Amino acid sequence: MVGIRAEVLADVEAISRVNELAFGRPEEADVVDRLRRADIPCLSLVAVDGGAVVGHILFTPATVDGGGRHVGQRVAGMGLAPLAVVPDRQRQGIGSSLVRRGLDLLRADGCPFVIVLGHPEYYARFGFECASVHGLACQWKGVPNEAFMVHVFDPDAMQGVSGIARYRGEFDAAV
Predict the structure, then answer these.
(1) Strand ranges (DSSP E) for the chain?
(2) How far apart are CA 50 and CA 30, in angstroms?
(3) For the chain, which end, N or C, has fewer CB atoms within 10 Å of the first or last residue's CB respectively?
(4) All domains of the chain, ordered by start, with CATH?
(5) DSSP symbol at 173
(6) Cα(26)–Cα(31) distance, integer angstroms
(7) Is the peptide bond before 41 cis (omega within 30 degrees of 0)?
């Protein structure tokens, strides 16, 4: 049975392996390592089966450079990236379990929003919707509108907020 828990120091190497296997390249694992070294508040969860890490999800600080009634202000939330499951365990609900657990924890912690860049069909099942509906745009040019999404937990905190949503700078090298 697969369990979901917070990352611990002993998971670092396994998390790198999971990300490299899932994405078929080292960039996502490198981003996770850079973010870990930046010592920022984040939520890093692993899926473990039989003592082996088979999945990983990371949520890191994200901001919206305020527009609307929040011109000149930054509104802080979280960004989901990366989500990785080893290839031979994909399509078994592990990724979904990681996403749900992470969103539940962030919602309970009072996070106002989570952004994600990914497959609309996949992330819509968790409550994500096209970010442009909320007046949010992705920091990176050329991202398809439908692939940049947001899950708003606190509509009051996001009332009138619009503008550019930004992941941490460590992600720039992987995009």
Answers:
(1) 3-6, 43-49, 52-66, 74-85, 113-117, 129-130, 136-138, 148-152, 163-166
(2) 26
(3) N
(4) 3-174 (3.40.630.30)
(5) G
(6) 9
(7) no
